[in-house]
Amino acid sequence: MDKEKGRRILLVNPFGIGDVIFTTPIIGSIRSAFPNSYIGYLCNERTSPVLFSDPRIDMVFVFERDEYRRLWRLSKAGCVAQAWHFFRRIRRECFDTVLDFSMDREYSFISMLAGIRRRIGYNYKNRGIFLTDKADIPRGYSGMHVIDHHKGLLRLLSEDMPDQTVPRIYVTRDDIEKAKHLLKAYGMDLTDKYICVMPGAGASWGSTAFRRRWPVARFAEAVSRLRHEFPLKVVLLGSLDERRLCDYISGIEPGLVNLCGKCSLMESVAVLKHAQALLTNDGGPLHMAVAVGTKTVSIFGPVPEDVYGPYPVCEKYVIIRDKLLSCSPCYKNFSLPECDELKCLNNINVDMVVQAMRSLLS
Measured over all CA atoms, what is the biggest interatomic distance in the chain, rounded to whole angstroms? Predict the structure, then answer.
């Protein structure tokens, strides 16, 4: 293994929660290989709390591309000034290597201008023109898990890298105390036995997020049956945008602890960390639970679980999908075909989900 000291490495990932969690094993490998290295991470505002709490990271740069586009429309001079300030912050850190997970040429171009000599990333659709080391990935992630793709990218940094397999989120004491305070208002504590239910997820898909979500009425029915079978409390979690989903479930099932829209991202992680299990769709919340070691039952529709599912494959993480449906999974090359029927989700009945939860809770 390369014993070189003092490496200064920047990771770039402007995508969603799950995408950032998929890079946490890479952070661990770099820290193990280069214990005295300086590690920076460029991400968006929504995912930044996961990285600010990670003690393996020395500096977090928050970059909101949409905000810069908005500024450009309002004032080109103002946008250039703010972009220049951000660029100088990166340049001052004197990074020698960047691992660029963005698949977009603009980030490697910024890295080049910032004087980062070694620029490692994916050559997706020939966008890697500013990279010095690149992995060809013409059709997006396929054939193996995203994390395994990232490990292949990491080997371009060094052939002999330690394998940090498990995704990980670090939860601070402050986040745990805040989570305790929220639960206390409902007569609960983190030491109580409870399951979490997150009927949303898939926010990074924007207006098509519903295509990753099992019908909320079935979530409500599953919750009702589980409450009658197990002496557990149920905590509903999600973002403010997902509040209507959780309100629907709590409206049908009185007595649930509805924290949807009331928790910060890391407070939600703290609640998940102490849960007996999580029931959710495919998406970031699933990977949040996996990253703190909580058992999960996840419902997959158009997305292939061998590429985007829980990692590593383990009996703690149960995946529900309609394996007999020939058109599923249909999400390939970062695109989704038109579909009005959503059979991949609608064919999954409540019995299948309850049985999966039963197997974990028993």
Answer: 62
Count Cβ atoms below 10 Å from residue 67 Cβ, excluding itself.
14
Q: Taking the CB of residue 362, how many other CB atoms lie within 10 A of it?
A: 7
Question: Would you report the helix, strand and coil content of the chain in percent, each value rounded to 5?
Answer: 45, 15, 45
Each domain of the chain, given as residue ranges in start order, spans 8-154, 173-361
Domain 173-361 in CATH 3.30.565.10? The answer is no
Which of 35, 19, 360 lies closest to 167, judged by CA?
Answer: 19
Q: Which residues in 45-57 are b (16+ Cβ under 10 Å) and which e?
A: ebbbbbbebbebb
> Which residue carries 């599953």 as its tokens?
222
Give the bridge partners for 216, in sequence order.
none
Q: How many CA atoms lie within 13 A of 54 on its CB side?
A: 27
DSSP-derived 3-state class of residue 236? strand
Classify 244 as helix, strand or coil: helix
- pLDDT tens for 82-137 read 777 788 889 999 999 999 999 999 899 989 989 999 999 999 999 999 999 999 99
- Homologous superfamily, domain 8-154: Glycogen Phosphorylase B; (3.40.50.2000)
Closest listed residue to residue 319, CA positions, set 341, 292, 344: 344
The burial of 206, by beta-carbon neighbours within 10 Å (0-12 exposed, 13-18 middle, 19 or more buried), is given as: exposed
- 82, 71 Cβ separation under 8 angstroms: yes
Question: Hey, do 8-154 and 173-361 end up sharing a CATH topology, with the first three levels equal?
Answer: yes
Distance set, CA 140 to CA 122, 149, 177 (Å): 9, 10, 40
Say how far apart CA 347 and CA 349 lie, in whole Å: 6
> How crowded is the C-beta side of 197, counted as CA atoms within 13 Å?
33
* Six-digit token string for 1: 């293994």
Task: Confirm whether pTM is higher than 0.85.
Answer: yes
